[in-house]
Automatic annotation (TrEMBL):
GO terms for molecular function: ATP binding; ATP hydrolysis activity. Keywords: ATP-binding, Nucleotide-binding. This is Fe-S cluster assembly ATPase SufC. The gene is sufC. Residues 4-248 form the ABC transporter domain. Belongs to the ABC transporter superfamily. Ycf16 family. NCBIfam families: sufC. Pfam families: ABC_tran.
Length: 251
């Protein structure tokens, strides 16, 4: 079976239906890009998968490596291996990155009935994973995201992803506001973390990021549904032709 199977998903926010019968399947080892016009429901889909209480699921099912994802709390979804990188990362004053990561890792271990990670092993892991995103040690000792630049926040998110080793990562417009160097580092981090067992969903407006993170599949989300799918060449076509031809097919 697939790593992720979304069937007939419907979700609403404040009584308004945003996701309207969405189907999507993701296999282990795959990278999927989701593109689409503003307001089509891309961030809503990430929020629904992560369990953000602002969204109400009104129909459909989501199976995540055989687990009924929608029945889990947001924390347990994360423990089961779902990682969401936010379009706007939050700042957590007074909590250092080191302590934040230790708490996250040990909560996951506890969920699986394991003891906390020994301190030396944890610090070694921190060092090793920091290198993947070229994250400075000083950032790791500062409060989570506090006073970080846009690029540093995004890099920090990929660092968190590297630490947690998720089965499925959803990167929601991770490229917005990144200069080309930060983009390259973020993309290289994502590529280095890719294995045959995990998968990534890259939500983006721009083909640019997909030059660095090459997707196996590209989907267009419009009006709360996946209305068109293709290979990497679809991203280039969308960049060139825009979305009008897709909207016309659907409307
Ligand atoms: P995208 O990420 O594709 O640009 P979104 O999922 O952010 O689109 O938004 C889809 C629609 O849902 C928009 O019309 C947006 O205004 C609405 N929406 C999303 N989140 C909320 C919210 N928390 N409260 C009210 N409306 C929302
Ligand atoms: Mg948007
Ligand atoms: Mg969005």
């Amino acid at each position: 079976s697939k790593l992720l199977e979304i069937k007939g998903l419907h979700a609403s926010v404040e009584g308004k239906e945003i996701i309207r019968g969405l189907d999507l399947e993701i296999g282990a080892g795959e990278v999927h890009a989701i593109m689409g016009p503003n307001g089509s429901g891309k961030s809503t889909l990430s929020g629904v998968l992560a369990g953000n209480p602002a969204y109400r699921v009104t129909g459909g099912s989501v199976s995540f490596h055989g687990v009924d994802l929608l029945s889990l709390s947001p924390e347990d979804r994360s423990h089961e291996g779902l990682f969401l990188s936010f379009q706007y990362p939050v700042e957590i004053p007074g909590v250092s990155m080191t302590n934040f990561m230790r708490a996250a890792i040990n909560a996951k271990r506890k969920y699986f009935g394991e003891d906390p990670m020994p301190a030396t092993e944890f610090l070694k892991l921190m060092r090793q994973r920091r290198e993947i995103v070229e994250l400075d040690n000083r950032l790791a000792s500062r409060s989570v995201n506090e006073g970080f630049s846009g690029g540093e926040k995004k890099r920090n998110e990929i660092f968190q992803m590297a630490m947690l080793e998720p089965r499925l990562s959803i990167l929601d417009e991770t490229d917005s506001g990144l200069d080309i160097d930060a983009l390259r580092i973020v993309a290289s981090g994502v590529n280095q973390l890719k294995t045959k067992d995990n998968a990534t969903i890259v939500i983006t407006h721009y083909q640019r990021l997909l030059d660095y993170i090459r997707p196996d599949f590209v989907h267009v989300l419009y009006h709360g549904r996946i209305v068109h799918s293709g290979g990497p060449e679809l991203a280039l076509e969308l960049e060139e032709r825009g979305y009008d031809w897709i909207k016309q097919q659907v409307d």
